[in-house]
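Aggregate trends can hide what the representation actually does to any particular protein. This step matters because it turns folding into a mapping between discrete strings. For completeness, the protein is quoted in full, as a sequence line and a line of structure tokens:
=====
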Amino acid sequence: MRAYRELFAVPGVRSLAVAAVATRIAAPMLTLALFLAVVDAGRSYAVAGLVLTGFAAALALSVPVSARLVDRLAPRRILLGWSAAHLTAYAVLILALATGSSIGVLVTCAVALGASAPPAGPVVRATWPAFVPSHRLQTAFALDGVVNEAMYVTGPLLVSLLLLFVGPIVVVGVAGLVMLVGILLLVRTPSVRPRATAERRNYLGPLSTGQVRLLLVMIVCDAFAFGAVVVAAPAAAAEADSPGAAGLLVGAVSLGTVLSALVYGTRPRATSLGRQLVLFHAVSALVVAGVSLAPTLLVLGLALLAVGLVGGPRDTLHQLALGEAAPTQYRTEAYAWMGSAMWVGYALGSGAAGQLISLAGDDVDVAFVAAGGVTALAALLSPLVRSTRESAVAEGAQA
């Protein structure tokens, strides 16, 4: 792990990593705690799902807006201002839950909470290239991916632990406090500086760049596959009369992602981004589709572990490629659109998997095959990806 030791030796990396952990764990804590708090308030699971949908939709739509303001103005000012609004939305939502407010009020409060979420994730990702040497970026983004994946496992576990002592409404408040701590740590990171620029801007921002649009489409495809797997794996467990294995199956994907990203972060960048993306997407497509051939739950778990092992390096490459493709003045917004693309792909994949399984008479294999097919589409697009460094070399050769 020499690469990670050298990365943490860079001034500011430790504080940025801690800020990333705090801000990333808040979201999975909130989603589970909010779901349980709505049910605990006497509402149905359908209402709880509607509240979470309102929160997620507002979050996906609003973060690119706040990230654009970060690119144009002082990041610290935007983060602190959005955090103040976010804490207010937390307080109003908790009050609405405690007083038994109507469904409309709860959904509205959840939408306000999502709309006011600070763009912490995009700021962290956009900050890595600002102070980490270029030869350490692969390690930095691998670490970022590991933190992101690990927090989605750790967050629900922390909620379960807290529920032994307090009610779900209190845990919702704890999630808000964790986010606040993360933001305060982030704004104190020396590398989070104003990025205002005098360069001419346009309304499309990073979406005006073809390479950014291409990468976002590929990210939607990969998130689609993950969403389909998250639905199909529990369905397979239920079909095998082992519903308790659902969490283990989904966890196998996360475990594989964390392990492979950690290892990939220690490796030198040997080939071009495009070639690596082709390789990992092609292998991912074959592995995901091949999951449908698993004869037992044990084999299915091993196959899903393999899906994660391929996904870790691929997701790291996405961050590297997007950072190189996005113009500097739009970098934070580009990473915000990456998050939105992941939410969109996940929603499409989980929804499509549920419909396909139902139409196929509860045959879960069709969902895995569909997920593999969508990942194959990303593999076909991968050769079109060219990094800034590779483009410069090509232009030099032509000159």
In short: The two ends are 41 Å apart (CA to CA). The domain at 205-398 is CATH 1.20.1250.20 (Growth Hormone; Chain: A;). The chain has two domains: 2-187, 205-398.
